[in-house]
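Thread: sanity check for a docking pose with pyridoxal-5'-phosphate

Original post by kr_44:
Hi all, I'm comparing my docking run against an independent structure prediction. Below are the sequence and the ligand SMILES. Could someone generate the full complex and paste the structure tokens? I mainly care about where the ligand ends up relative to the chain.
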Amino acid sequence: MARVYNFSAGPSMLPEEVLKTAAAEMMEYGTSGQSVMEMSHRSKEYQAIFDEAEADLREIMNIPDNYEVLFLQGGASTQFAMIPLNLMTKNGKADYIITGQWANKAYKEAARYGAAREVASSKDKTFSYIPKTTAADFDPEADYVHICMNNTIYGTKYNELPETGNVPLIADISSCILSEPVDVSKFGMLYAGAQKNVAPAGVTIVIIRKDLIGNAMDITPTMLRYDTHSENGSMFNTPPCYTIYIAGLTFKWIKKMGGLEAMKELNEKKAKILYDFLDESKLFKGTVVPEDRSLMNVPFITGNEELDAKFVAEAKKAGFVNLKGHRSVGGMRASIYNAMPIEGVEKLVEFMKKFEEENA
Ligand SMILES: *Cc1c(COP(=O)(O)O)cnc(C)c1O
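Reply from moderator J.T.:
Ran it for you. Here is the predicted complex with pyridoxal-5'-phosphate included:
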């Protein structure tokens, strides 16, 4: 069996150790006589798996007690609607910063339910930077400010959070969750789809300050209310049981790796190998301003579409897959999430050097 280095933006690589544990436990979890896939979500065995996953996540992310952790379905995209339906309810206003397609989708969905306002955007330069804001840019009466912390498609990330005063900050952390420590207490809410850095697709992690729950608009469907899920331990209906189990295995792997400080160190090392090469290469170049570069998603180009396509094809043959950039921007993108080993990045750079020599 030859496993490839998978640079997909999502679903993406999972730690080999997680896959091996899941494989070993496939036919029988513990002494339960059954696979986790087959278990009732109301069983004692499954509740223990669920509780341990939540406790481990709380430990790794240092989540304060006044925050609820919810395991929901519908992807990060469903949060684009749940956020305004539940939280744009005091003054009916919210501020959005547009740093790419996901941020824009969140904004457009919110505009269906209230006065969503675009505060700043980096669209003028194809979202290749994070727009600077000051406290004065935000409406003090906004119910929240929404940002996308790491922009998966364009490869930018917030290194400094916007100053929003007393207005709760909400961040989509789908493509950077667990990649480095975050101070949860600085946010009203954080959310992430699992399929980038945590587990297979199917679960969305929501971390929300408890006082923000319980103010949903009357029209909000029961399943889209945060209080429905917080009051029922994320089991109002059947949760994505197996995906939560895999997420739990990933949390244990991160603990073993040394937690989020260690992940950050490793991710910075990996990203530096790639960015240093892009900065010195005569053929390839990064597309993002250096100060806003993502640790997780690294877009680059040669400046020649045919050469880009040739690179992607030859890389694939050499075992480096899914390096094609997002369909909206072209070029290449290497997503180097937590589970991408450092050797994967080193070998990719070796391959890029060779390609450069051959195509100079
Ligand atoms: C992938 C992604 C999404 C969409 O997630 P789904 O789970 O497919 O809805 C939203 N935001 C960001 C930042 C993403 O990377």
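Residues 17-256 form a domain with the Aspartate Aminotransferase; domain 2 fold (CATH 3.40.640.10). Hope that helps with the comparison, let us know if your pose agrees.
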